[in-house]
């Protein structure tokens, strides 16, 4: 008697569809290998756990809102020989997450700041950590829209609780009121509580320029960001540099005339 048709609705009721997806194959495997019942059950439970972990991983990927799928394995360290690769690998292991420490990444456009930030975010997701990626402009726009809807405090609280927030392109556009206050509020709420990665084209000494209207607010925000932060400088050529076209070979439009043609 085949018990699988009878088990199917029960497994669905128990929300064990991971077992349902593999039970026939596992049953054949158990019969062929004369497997003990406990080993057979362990395989089924393992399938269910793997399915749930994959679902969680996929959900975190969607919530992260990454621009593209950038990984540390794809990062070209050879272009940036001065970058501390040992530190990068240490950060990828996730210690900064438990420290609730910021990571600040600066460098010229095209040196891989966003790639590195998203790659570290991917590492965090693999470790079961929720991540949110936004540009600085997108983030302040989200908070401003929440203010207009009367949901500012609720949105601020939700963003402050995200275990890892990646803020890309800080300082690319000046922060005008109320965006400067919104960013300050968010950084203050996350301070020493959750980890934040920030990328910027500005040198560290120039970050106050992002707050043209309020230098006091700039100082208060940046003090919190810089405290216990891991600072990375990416100094190299842009990988977006255009490729030079090969030089055209000179060609003769006219044939050389042979002596006997004169």
UniProtKB/TrEMBL annotation:
Domain of life: Eukaryota
SMART domains according to UniProt: AAA (SM00382)
Family, as annotated: Belongs to the IS21/IS1162 putative ATP-binding protein family.
Entry's Gene Ontology BP terms: DNA replication
Keywords of this entry: ATP-binding, Nucleotide-binding
MF (Gene Ontology): ATP binding
Region described as Disordered: spans on this chain: 241-262
Ranges of residues in domain AAA+ ATPase: 99-232
Protein's name in the database: Transposition helper protein
Stored Pfam families: IstB_IS21
